[in-house]
């Protein structure tokens, strides 16, 4: 059989950015003798997977394959589905460095052998990389992700995100924003650089476009310091000074900055406000005690101190904004008192990418599925062990 991944790779390289699904379809049909392909894209809430090639796919046809596609997306493993007509459909995850984009469907005339499944998996990897690269050049895939119109603030927030998940030998990291289509100031950011993972969670004040603009300034100030080699303290202080000299203390941003040393399992933290760190160790959820300092931008020339926390292999850390733990729909008891811990315990057997969705779904259920009154961020970090140990296990 010809080198299918190579053929598809060449087709994707020459295709216009908005025509990747069609280019992949032609190449896969030719090289794997497929009778059909489809690219499914996950929406902003991860509530469904939506077709790109045939967006007008009838509901019956869409729903008949949606459960299998969702199983592939959740497990991040190929799923084979045989039909009564003798054909076999291979569902393959579209993922880049742990960032879950969607699912590729390839329909064949009969059951594939292991070598064909491996080739199909390589093809999915090539397509996922191309889709991620093309996302800045076309709106097509972003349109597929949205089930309703985004507010202007939400449009800015989603564009500012680094992604929604990333994997590494030592950790798996995932995050989610809600309300997905109208989020204002809450946000998260991260960067992997050698043996260092930097994570920030922002609990932005205000609402709407003003909150989103404030968050954008804060995130980019921290990125500027980080990309210039600045320490965690320098990131916090540059962002704080930038906000203060823009707003003279009238606006500020509660922020938690974390830096994980992936070789030694040490987390350095600057707690500048309200986001909380919760640790799931075994079956116990507890809050990680950090000394809270002033929010960024409250006063001029504010100086910050770093604290250290050690994590153990198997630890799961949740970082949540006050829109999660302090939620009080209809004046009831705060969500974080009991319900949040219960939701976090229920994720023990789920990867971080599924855990953030579980906590958010429980939060929506606590609100009786009404729109959230406040922005909410959940970031989940699964610590597998030091990168040197993890690399040894992978060999």
Automatic annotation (TrEMBL):
One of its GO terms (molecular function) is phosphatase activity. Keywords: Hydrolase. The keyword Hydrolase applies. Residues 168-383 form the PPM-type phosphatase domain. The keyword Membrane does not apply. Signal peptide: none annotated. This is Protein phosphatase.
